[in-house]
């Protein structure tokens, strides 16, 4: 495995937005990163990819990523364990970054929610788990003792509520309206909601809409009452990728393939130009990124058209994860992580 050249310089940039936990992640490459003032409709350019894998396990399968206050967090699997790692501006390598977890708990997913980053942990054998939170300016992770002690698989903020999907002795969706101080079970595994008895791989709250989406191994489901009741979406198969921004949504399902919606998921249409088995999506306004078995593709029209942006990646890179941190795009294969500036 090759790593970034030792001479590669990194810089740490903290704009005014840092007070909101939005300090940018930056990497000096000789090219200026995209400015916040660039219209999202301007032609987009992704610079050549560079590897950023130092410090990760030899086989680092990345399952989720989050950007918070100038640091990128990633849940990585390797060497028989799954842990949380982080890389901050000013560093050339990843470091283990998670809390001291209980017993046989392992990291499952990490997500940025408001002014904190949350880590979901699970003891799959016991069907138990924990929810940990790192707040802006805090030095240590805190376990939310009031959270359900169940195996957790996905988290999202919808309106004023924090929602967590859980499996175990009392599976379902759990909601908190007070930042995790108290929780109420919602959406029990009955009828079409039976999928809640199994791990939910992704929860997506379509911005500007009441609709909540859950991606599972049995299909895509949606709820218009914050998870109380569920309906099956009109696209079929295991959900392999799912993301949303504004009215745009992108999904890849095992039966119908890559799909897009431009009306908050009300209707879906095939997303032309994408490879079969697209592994990941990331949407930011009308700009869209897709991780495919043959590299990275980008779109400037919400996924209606796509073009390749894989320069610098190894040939036929199977991209299983994508994450946009400020003006920098992270991509992950089943063993390596790469980063590129987006203009």
Main structural class? mainly beta
Biggest pleated-sheet summary: 4 strands, antiparallel
Tertiary shape: globular
Helical content stands at under 10%
Beta-strand percentage range:
35-45%
Mean pLDDT: 86
Number of extended strands: 28
Q: What is the straight-line distance between the termini?
A: 28 Å
Oligomeric state of this protein: single chain
How do the strands of the widest beta sheet line up side by side?
A: 1-28-27-26
Count up the helices.
0
The residue ranges in which pLDDT falls below 50 over 5 or more consecutive positions are 1-20, 34-38
What is the N-to-C order of secondary-structure elements (H for helix, E for strand)? EEEEEEEEEEEEEEEEEEEEEEEEEEEE
Rg to the nearest angstrom?
Answer: 19 Å
What is the gist of this entry?
With 343 residues, the protein is mostly beta strands. 0% of the residues lie in helices and 43% in strands. The chain has strands at residues 50-51, 61-68, 71-78, 81-88, 95-96, 106-113, 116-123, 128-135, 142-143, 151-158, 161-167, 172-176, 184-186, 202-205, 212-216, 219-223, 231-232, 239-245, 248-253, 257-261, 269-270, 280-284, 287-292, 295-299, 307-308, 321-325, 328-332, 337-341.
């Amino acid at each position: 495995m090759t790593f970034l050249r030792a001479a590669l310089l990194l810089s740490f940039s903290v704009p005014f937005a840092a007070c909101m936990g939005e300090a940018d992640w930056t990497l000096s490459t000789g090219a200026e990163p995209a400015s916040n003032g660039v219209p999202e409709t301007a032609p987009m350019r992704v610079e050549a990819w560079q590897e950023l894998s130092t410090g990760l396990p030899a086989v680092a399968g990345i399952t989720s990523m989050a950007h918070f206050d100038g640091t990128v967090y990633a849940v990585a699997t390797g060497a028989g364990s799954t842990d949380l790692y982080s890389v901050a501006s000013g560093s050339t390598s990843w470091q283990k970054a998670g809390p001291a977890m209980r017993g046989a708990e392992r990291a499952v997913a990490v997500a940025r929610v408001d002014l904190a980053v949350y880590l979901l942990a699970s003891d799959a054998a016991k069907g138990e788990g924990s929810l940990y939170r790192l707040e802006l300016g805090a030095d240590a992770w805190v376990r939310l003792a009031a959270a359900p002690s169940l195996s957790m698989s996905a988290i999202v903020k919808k309106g004023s509520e924090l929602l967590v999907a859980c499996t175990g002795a009392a599976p379902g969706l759990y909601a908190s309206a007070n930042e995790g101080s108290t929780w109420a079970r919602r959406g029990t595994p009955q009828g079409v909601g039976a999928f809640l008895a199994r791990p939910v791989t992704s929860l997506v709250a379509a911005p500007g809409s009441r609709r909540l989406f859950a991606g599972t191994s049995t299909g895509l489901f949606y709820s218009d009452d914050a998870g109380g009741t569920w309906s099956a979406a009109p696209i079929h198969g295991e959900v392999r990728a799912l993301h949303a921004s504004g009215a745009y949504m992108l999904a890849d399902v095992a039966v119908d393939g890559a799909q897009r919606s431009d009306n908050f998921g009300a209707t879906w249409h095939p997303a032309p130009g994408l490879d079969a088995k697209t592994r990941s999506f990331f949407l930011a306004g009308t700009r869209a990124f897709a991780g495919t078995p043959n590299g990275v593709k980008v779109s400037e029209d919400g996924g209606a058209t796509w073009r390749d942006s894989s320069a610098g990646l190894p040939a036929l890179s199977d991209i299983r994860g994508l994450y946009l941190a400020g003006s920098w795009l992270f991509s992950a294969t089943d063993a390596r992580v790469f980063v590129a500036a987006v203009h």
